[in-house]
Amino acid sequence: MTLKQVGAALLVGGVAAAAAAKAAKARDALGEPESGLARPVDRKRTILVTGAASGIGLNTVRLFLAKGWFVGAFDLDEEALRKALGDRSASSVVLGRVDVCDGDSCKSAVETFLRAAPGGAMDALFNCAGILTIEEFERIPLARQQLIIDVNCKGVINMTLPALPALKEARGCIITMASGSSVAGIPYHVTYAATKAFVYSFTEGLRTELSPQGVRVCDVSVNYVATPMTATQQWSKGSFLVKNNFATASSVAGTVWDALHKATRFNEHFYVDDVTAKTFTIVALSRALGLSYHTKLIAESMQAKI
Ligand SMILES: NC(=O)c1ccc[n+]([C@@H]2O[C@H](COP(=O)([O-])OP(=O)(O)OC[C@H]3O[C@@H](n4cnc5c(N)ncnc54)[C@H](O)[C@@H]3O)[C@@H](O)[C@H]2O)c1
After folding, report:
1. Which residues, by range, are in coiled-coil regions (predicted)?
2. Does residue 98 line the site of ligand 1, with CB under 6 A?
3. Using one digit for the tens of pLDDT, what is the confidence trace for 56-71?
4. What pLDDT, on the 0 to 100 scale, is given for residue 305?
5. Domain for residue 263, yes or no?
6. Is 36 in the pocket of ligand 1 (CB under 6 A)?
7. Engineered SS bond to 178: which of 69, 131, 152, 182, CB 3.0-4.6 Å?
8. pLDDT confidence tier of residue 3, bands split at 50, 70 and 90
9. Ligand 1: which residue has its CA nearest to atom 5?
10. Is 38 inside any structural domain?
């Protein structure tokens, strides 16, 4: 980095800090209501989790059950769901099939959840269902590209809309699985990364819209996690990645728990670890300085030819 670039970075940092302080003051003046989770209730807290049969979703279900919550565990793969959670008592969990690509299926999952949940209440919705294919863009068939968009983007809308009335009633929280790829385009993950950028933007827009009504909206980002999703990919497409330690699904579940309790009207993005948080900072800085430093880094790490 040249002296001129260091000076520009310091200037950008100073301006950003001043803008953040001004924005915080302005937001305080809005006097928006606090989240319902800040208020005590005389029933179990409740959460609906999609993608609950595997990986991050399943670990989140287990964590919230251990914390004494009532959990709605929904997944496309009902058999896997029953295998993983079928021994739980009906007073702590309701299991069900949902296809997040299908609006009617999502509506019916929300109805099933609310019928079973204590007080018919929903304190939290965790949009976790998602799919990934690591492959050259051209080699991923059109139907698979479209399915990635349907599950990762439309699925979030399909679940959030029917859950909103109950979430508003409880002044609850919506949490969606984002990714390290929410912040930058990634070779061999082109369509997937674009869907996670959708999540990041969806969270910011909806958070701002629903804050005055006491509903918190946040997302959780992480680079790579050891789950069936990553275990089934062709890692030769990004050899750097196999050399690095993946996060665990239980650490992501822990961040979901933290996000739910720490989300405020000012704070919507949560990162599982420092490496993920740094990814977002480096990309933001690289863009602010008009550099393509982050794309170079990503390309090198993936051994992509540019
Ligand atoms: N594993 C990672 O490295 C990683 C990193 C960042 C973000 N994420 C995100 O975390 C979420 C969970 O990933 P994971 O690693 O636990 O994956 P996973 O493959 O272990 O689990 C995903 C679950 O989603 C379910 N699912 C798929 N399509 C569905 C549909 N149409 N309707 C309902 N359920 C459906 C699957 O049956 C599966 O049980 C995803 O949104 C993913 O994009 C994962």
Report:
1. none
2. yes
3. 999 999 999 999 999 9
4. 46
5. yes
6. no
7. 182
8. low
9. 224
10. no
Instruction: Assign 306 a pLDDT band (cuts: 50, 70, 90).
Output: very low
pLDDT tens digits, residue range 151-190? 999 999 999 999 999 999 999 999 999 999 999 998 889 9
Kindly state if the Cβ of 51 falls inside 6 Å of ligand 1. yes
104 inside domain: yes
**pLDDT confidence of residue 304:** 53
Among protein residues, the one with the nearest Cα to ligand 1's atom 7 is 179
Of the residues 188, 192, 200, 271, only one is catalytic, namely 192
**Residue-wise DSSP of the chain:** --HHHHHHHHHHHHHHHHHHHHHHHHHHHH-PPPPGGGS--SS--EEEEESTTSHHHHHHHHHHHHTT-EEEEEES-HHHHHHHHTTS-TTTEEEEE--TT-HHHHHHHHHHHHHHSGGG--SEEEE-------S-GGGS-HHHHHHHHIIIIIHHHHHHHHHHHHHHHHT-EEEEE--GGGSS--TT-HHHHHHHHHHHHHHHHHHHHHGGGT-EEEEEE-S-EESHHHHTS-GGGGHHHHHSPPEEHHHHHHHHHHHHHH-BTTB-EEESSHHHHHHHHHHHHHHHTT--HHHHHHHHHHT---
Count of the separate structural domains present in the chain: 1
Is 192 in the active site?
yes
Residue 55 sits in a domain of what CATH number?
Answer: 3.40.50.720
Predicted confidence (pLDDT) per residue in 7-30, tens digit: 766 676 677 667 666 655 655 555
Whether the predicted pLDDT of 193 surpasses 90 = yes
Task: For residue 32, tell me if it sits in a domain.
Answer: no
CA of 55 to the centre of ligand 1 (A): 7
